[in-house]
Amino acid sequence: MILLGNAILFWCSAWTLNVLLARSRFHSNKIVRILVPALFGLSLLVLWEGAVTSLGISPVILPAPSDVMTRFAAETGTLWEDFVQTVLKGALSGYVIGATAAFTIAILIDRSSFLTRGLLPVGNFVAALPIVGIAPILVSWFGFDWHSKAAVVVVMVFFPILVNTVQGLKEASAMQQDLMRTYAAGYWQTLRKLRLPAAMPFIFNGLKIATTLALIGAIVAEYFGSPTRGMGFRISTGVGSLSIDLVWAEIAVAALTGSVAYGIVALVERSTTFWHPSQRNDK
């Protein structure tokens, strides 16, 4: 219980320090903005370790972070193989295909009022379909390898990106578009120089949402059929064999991957839409 008490004391101290940093005049400093969530996450891990160790919680129920890290270090080869299968092959390929298709269809919808009225309602309907319903169907169509996982990812990321892009293309005001017409600008010139830049914040919102959906879709799809590798396959078999520390190691890899992917898209957004008020006011 002494370890648990020390963990609680550390958590309280970290919480107090975070509150002071968040309220200080340095709260907008980049180092402080990184330090606050990092310290908060570290305090949760310390509290987790203390609770599991002091209360004698079985590793089958909840392994300690130290056990997870030990298993992580011992299974780096397996984790990397699963990462390549799920992320680089399934999630990334599906993300790129889905985003490209969504952007292309969004331009077509923008050019056609018929597609605007006909396709978007159908898209919203398809987007509401549960992944556990469509994943086994796509696995039966495309096989058990990464191709079926990519197909699931395409379905999951397509419509969020499509809807955000279509909405973003409407962001340019009528006065701005009339001004482009007075300069004798055609549709494609107006699209490239006015409407696409105005739509960029919406497009990046869709891309950021899709980063997490892509990873979730690829992992869940592996539950319904996969070769003997992949994050979803390893999580499923790990739970069945009571290798919960390996399951948590896979979860850690997925969480880190999703955070890094989101951060990359956010950095690209900041460099692309630096002119937007949301970026200019971000100190």
CATH superfamily annotation of the largest domain = MetI-like
Count every helix, treating DSSP H or I runs of 4 or more residues as helices.
Answer: 12
Topology as H/E string?
HHHHHHHHHHHH
CATH arch. level architecture of the largest domain: Orthogonal Bundle
Overall shape: it is flat
Query: Cα-atom Rg, whole angstroms?
Result: 23 Å
CATH fold topology of the largest domain: MetI-like fold
CATH level 1 class label of the largest domain: Mainly Alpha
Q: What would the average pLDDT be, to the nearest integer?
A: 84
Number of strands: 0
Beta-strand fraction estimate = under 5%
Model description:
The structure is a single chain. The chain has 283 residues and is mainly α. The protein has 2 domains: 56 residues; 210 residues, MetI-like (MetI-like fold, Orthogonal Bundle), CATH 1.10.3720. The protein is 82% helix and 0% strand. The chain has 12 helices and no strands. Helix 4 runs antiparallel to helix 9. It is flat and about 75 Å long. The mean pLDDT is 84.
